[in-house]
Amino acid sequence: MKHLEIERRFVLYPCSMKRFLKRDSIHFRSYSIVQFYLVAREGEAVRYRRCGRVYTRTVKRGSGLVREESEEPITKEIFDEAFHRNSGGVIRKRRYVFSMEGLTFELDSFKKPLKGLNILEVEFARKSDAERFKLPEIFRSILVSEVTGDTSFTNGAISRRMKIPPIESPLSELLKEVDKRGEFLKASVSVGFGPYESGAHALKAIIYSLVKTVHSNRAAILEGSQDPERLHQLRVAMRKMRALFSQLDGLFDPLWLQRHKERVASLMRVTGEMRDMDVYIEEIEGFREMLPKRLHDALDRLERHLISRQKSERKRLHDFLLGEAFCREIEELGKFAETPSEEGLSPEAATPVILPVKKALRLRYAKILKKGSRIDEESPAHRYHEIRIDIKKLRYMMEFFSPIFDEEAYRQMMQRVKSIQTILGKHQDLDVQSEHLKSLERQPDLYDEAALEAFRALLGRMSAMKREKRLEFRREFADFSKTGALFGKMVCKF
After folding, report:
1. What is the helix, strand, coil percentage profile of the chain, to 5?
2. Does pTM surpass 0.85?
3. Which residues span the domain enclosing 337?
């Protein structure tokens, strides 16, 4: 029987639609659907579908808001015979049907390999009703985009590719948005892409922003800036690139990824000692407050020793920033980011970025909860350092993709993450400085009784401060471990 199909279609966030409907007390009925499409004439789609024990064949013609549809019941045998002739993909999904505002809503939640795709369809009796329709408020927070006229989101097109299509912005437009920042000395990333932006374009926009930060801080250092923040921000930008590589590794070509992960890690190692000197010198004044005045002369000698080393490290840093290895790597990453090419990427980079991001965040969050629950006041320092790295990676991923999260939940979650990171960062600084002090005891120009007494007093105070930080961590982590609902709301918006 032929009739006109008048419907509007909307893509929703890739989260549990059953949980969403139950949360808002929307009464629904649901059933499983298996469907596939056979090759038809141009402008026509022939669909075979099984809903429970009901089998149908449907022919659809046209596209957009209004289409002609002809549906007839068929037997299981006809369905099975067509199934064996099918050379395309088979779509499996759970359909939730409910009424709202006098209309029938059908919400399809797709199964693997299309898990994460949720499409809401609303059918109308008249075209004018469809044109006047406004999506109910409860769906607007989880709306990705309307796809009524987007042929890539028809079930037929999806069954041919069996991949969730992205809703892309031109790469050039994303990079122009990055350029609007104007100043790139701080390694922050803010690119306004949507949840269904392709992984490829999202990655390139983020790397483009971080490369600009590296260039800006490199230029400032080479022009003579002695502000320790310049090296710090350069290193943060490179560290963020490494975090992006490791957490979204499935979006990159494996050989490309291995090469650039190793190169960036190597560049980070070269700049590490200079950064340690900067941090150490910044802490000297705090060291003075820990010790009686009679031991300050020893600290003065320590400061002069560190400043002398800092000067030689600064010269080494200048040479390094002008060197071939550094310049080549940053230039290659910049070209990768600016070029709308698939080189360096995997096929998965063509899918909506929210899918791998959501998975990576959940894995990192679970890892942090597991590691944190096993750490106590007696755990070795490297356990605290390991969870600090995990916390950093979680923070970076949250920052990279903040535009696609629930704003208020993101703000609250970020406060918790930053608080723990600050505690663990101080603990790590104390641990590194303690080890450095122990090594300085063997320096001839610092070795005398007063210096040894000062160093040992500092080591004792640092040990006490580390214990304090460990207690702070336990208290803060106890609260962090209760953020499951907040984390879920941040990612899913409900």
Report:
1. 60, 15, 25
2. yes
3. 167-351
